[in-house]
């Protein structure tokens, strides 16, 4: 766990932890035993069995294809979940900022990939200092310009050993060198550096498309093939095994196909959302969802849900719930009503409705059928990355019994 944060064994529930019952205050978060019915709404809950299932599915899927997995830790920012991913066979954790990299290193992650350029001098020196004190750990960051290399060499102290992956981009996408010729120039500069070590090539295909239409799949595949070709070009410049990495949580099947011919390289996926999957965006786009006509045993399952209570029914067919933008994600689709119950964790019945809008603390539920003030609606969620960041402490429930035995602390 992070040196500057309490461990799971030390962290206890406090009155400031949203929606936790007062009866749990002072209890270690790894030693809880409380029914869901004692929690308040709104509430985000993780499904223990679904997370275990998803860890096993992804470990099996990558293992069968000879791929490594360094899942994106920014999805959860929860070191206790990172540890479970590492125990399931992941070879490292990926992060998105220098601060996140510092947290991951201090959490004891052996290999941290920073899928971004770090250009903050103070953070660079802090990271270099940690690596000097912990030679057993490795940090590898991305670079997409010669100017980035100039800054790294200027700010890193002598004796640093920062790994670098040259990032390939695409026109209209996000970061990354737009031309292979630029990527090669960057690689050659890194090989001449006294503080940088060339590791290979990297990229992010998820910025190229947003669905699984034929045009989108063709565009993503073409980009992944370009990245694979760049890795082959860089292979002669890299000392040791060359890294080639891509793969968000939407198109990792296409990445696997493009990387398959690259023998003798470390072929690394970074998919992070898989641990809890979702009921929205990733369910519609992931190659491992049950909608892809695959068996449930081979598919990722939704491992997060929210509960919200009916607080107002101001007109027929409209109910206002007590969960809003500060509680549930909405950037990749609004929550999906799944069921309704008289009390939190109680017997559920079907609900025919749709969330049409969110305010800061309210959800607008358009529905047919019977609802009553105080009833609890179960919500499927879309996009894990913007679900976890709204909660500092998240209960993990046994779906079969409705009992919470632990909670996950996040660091955003």
UniProtKB/TrEMBL annotation:
<dbReference type="InterPro" id="IPR029066">
    <property type="entry name" value="PLP-binding_barrel"/>
</dbReference>
<dbReference type="InterPro" id="IPR042208">
    <property type="entry name" value="D-ser_dehydrat-like_sf"/>
</dbReference>
<feature type="domain" description="D-serine dehydratase-like">
    <location>
        <begin position="303"/>
        <end position="398"/>
    </location>
</feature>
<dbReference type="InterPro" id="IPR026956">
    <property type="entry name" value="D-ser_dehydrat-like_dom"/>
</dbReference>
<dbReference type="Pfam" id="PF14031">
    <property type="entry name" value="D-ser_dehydrat"/>
</dbReference>
<dbReference type="InterPro" id="IPR051466">
    <property type="entry name" value="D-amino_acid_metab_enzyme"/>
</dbReference>
<protein>
    <submittedName>
        <fullName>Amino acid deaminase</fullName>
    </submittedName>
</protein>
